[in-house]
Specification:
about 130 residues; mainly beta; 7-stranded mixed barrel; Flagellar assembly factor FliW; flagellum
């Protein structure tokens, strides 16, 4: 269990992540000074964590279209209040980002959903390069 005294805001999955139905509450734990890498960590089981990053510094042209169902699940209508986080896979030779299934967080309510952008053409394993 994550200690609530750490003061990290809880992100509640409006829809459980595929494969993890029992895990609904997560926190973002910053992993570097730049604020580019985070551990999306389950409150119930801190050993369950996903390496995530905002895609903009690595993929400046990344602008997926978010479906109305996502806005309904998050109970919001304002796309400017959404934060996108790409799930990262760190490998020995390369690090990739899953641009097909970002985690979408409403900054106001701290509710989230992982979206599968099927048919978007975005790759599951996009090689990461810092854009600046």
């Amino acid at each position: 269990m994550i200690d609530p005294s750490l003061g990290l805001p809880t992100i509640r999955m409006a829809v459980p992540m595929p494969g993890f139905p029992a895990h609904r509450d997560f926190v973002l734990v910053r992993l570097n000074e730049d604020g580019l890498l985070y551990a999306f960590t389950s409150i119930q089981d801190p050993d369950l964590r996903f390496l995530v990053a905002p895609p903009e510094p690595f993929f400046p042209d990344y602008a997926p279209e978010i479906d109305d169902e996502v806005f309904q699940a998050l109970n919001t209508k304002d796309p400017d209040r959404l934060l996108l986080m790409a799930v990262i896979t760190a490998g020995a030779d390369e690090t990739t980002a899953n641009l097909m299934a970002p985690i979408v967080v409403d900054r106001d309510t701290m509710r989230a959903v992982q979206v599968v952008l099927s048919g978007s053409g975005y790759p599951v394993r996009a090689i990461m390069h810092r854009a600046y």
